Amino acid sequence: xxxxxxxxxxxxxxxxxxxxTAIGGDGQVTLGNMMIKGGARKVRSLADGKVKVGFAxxxxxxxxxxxxxxxxxxxxxxxxxxxxxxxxxEWRTDRALRRLESxxxxxxxxxxxxxxxxxxxxxxDDDVISIGSxxxxxxxxxxxxxxxxxxxxxxxxxxxxxxxxxxCIYTNTDxxxxxV
Length: 180
Fold this sequence. Notes:
Blueprint: E1 7-9, E2 11-17, E3 20-25, E4 29-31, E5 34-37, E6 43-46, E7 51-57, H1 59-75, H2 80-93, H3 95-98, E8 102-107, E9 112-116, E10 120-122, E11 128-132, H4 135-148, H5 153-167, E12 176-179
């Protein structure tokens, strides 16, 4: 696939506020300059709904990582930080995993973490983090709403993703939000 045909998609945003964590994503998948799917679901529940995961990047790669993360969660009693660190170590050192082109946000009621293929495990300072094509727009909107509104975490995610969808051509407003 050349650069013009590169699959671009998604904005995933997670916000933690007042003891609630919300993670949401849009549904757009774009191939080159065409939108080819509008209702993709890029947010999933794990650990009987106690852990939420959103992913950006190649869908096949994301599902491979999702399965591995779910296994790590199970091995580490649903401790997302421990599971994320173990997954990042494996992701960085495993030759096949290093080639995967996807990024994930994982969240539970206490933590939000970004996991990346170069061994990244990042916890945001301000309980707001996003990935994907419209992440800058969504993060800016969420930070403003966190600071200047009384909206819930879920409402901040939904409104911020709507704003990103109105600005970013690779993000739409077919939004799914999960809370924990």
